[in-house]
Design a protein that fits this description.
CATH topology: TIM Barrel
CATH architecture: Alpha-Beta Barrel
Radius of gyration: 19 Å
Number of helices: 11
Order of helices and strands: EEEHEHEEEHEHEHEHHEHHEHH
Helix content: 40-55%
Low-confidence stretches: none
Shape: globular
Strand order of the largest sheet: 3-4-5-8-9-10-11-12
Mean pLDDT: 97
Bound molecules: NADP nicotinamide-adenine-dinucleotide phosphate
Oligomer: single chain
Structural class: alpha/beta
Length: 313
Amino acid sequence: MQKISLGESKLSSSRLAYGCWRLAPAGDVKTNLEIARAAILAAVDAGFTLFDHADIYCHTRAESAFGEVMRENPKLRKKLLVSTKCGIRLADEPPGTPQRYDFSAEHIIRSCEQSLRRLHVEEIDLFQLHRPDWLMDADEVAIAFTSLHKSGKVIEFGVSNFAPSQVAMIQRALLQKLEQPLVANQVEISLANLTAFTDGTLDQCQSLNLTPLAWSPLAGGLLGDGGKDLLPSQQGYRVDGILAALDAMATQRGVTRTALALAWLLKHPAKIIPIVGTANPDRIRAAALATKIELTREEWYHLLLAARGEPLP
Ligand SMILES: NC(=O)c1ccc[n+]([C@@H]2O[C@H](COP(=O)([O-])OP(=O)(O)OC[C@H]3O[C@@H](n4cnc5c(N)ncnc54)[C@H](OP(=O)(O)O)[C@@H]3O)[C@@H](O)[C@H]2O)c1
């Protein structure tokens, strides 16, 4: 699979990333390990090198299952980039607390250290803030990031679900304290969710040379063979028109609908890296074929119009 730099860093990622959110859905450790092992090894074989996590995925079980696969395959580490996120704290952890976001330096540093242990790696290649904390203090974030970088625990930093104004705020503090810019903003982008094209996110990624990482690139499965465990925000997506346009073009080109939906993201000049989320090895291999599809401007706009459901002005 083709490679691409993350932002201005020296880290080189596969053109598609693999998302580990759904890696450990079962109650028991053995089943989770089997699912994770099959998915990770299929993704590595298909050329994926960037693996995206968060501390909260499957209540930490996704990181732990991944860590176990790393333990079983020690030679894998140097082939992969390991990315994770922190900053979301679930309700009742500890008991009696509400759901909240926490970018305090103490929480950021502690989360990173816990993820390192679960992931069974010496350092995290890309460490991201998961969702903007309403009480975010950019200077405190920069202090935490500087400490994690200087202690060798994290190589590069990114954010997720940040508005352009929030990216600018963190970027400014980070450049002052660490002299190292953010490399990525991870946001939802797909034919079913066009927000990043219109709210300034992709414009900012191009102008700051930040890599846009696209979560739910198949709208959680709605652009594939159906979504399960959709996020509440995705449950209202109407994709019939998109699927009809994708299917017609896929038949014409002799490719799959899902590869086409991912190739549509790859075409954008901001150099979007879609994060593929299926745990099914056959679907992982099918997704990788997106990197072999080059869409014309006309094909790209054809799918955009289907996604908009109305003409351009
Ligand atoms: N930063 C954030 O806030 C945030 C939020 C959400 C996700 N993420 C990241 O983005 C990654 C991807 O998100 P996602 O899982 O929603 O991505 P996705 O690729 O849009 O959706 C994957 C889901 O689609 C299903 N699916 C159905 N038909 C499919 C097909 N033909 N091909 C592929 N998948 C098909 C999969 O089921 P099967 O597994 O049964 O194939 C899986 O449940 C996550 O793993 C995580 O790393 C980040």
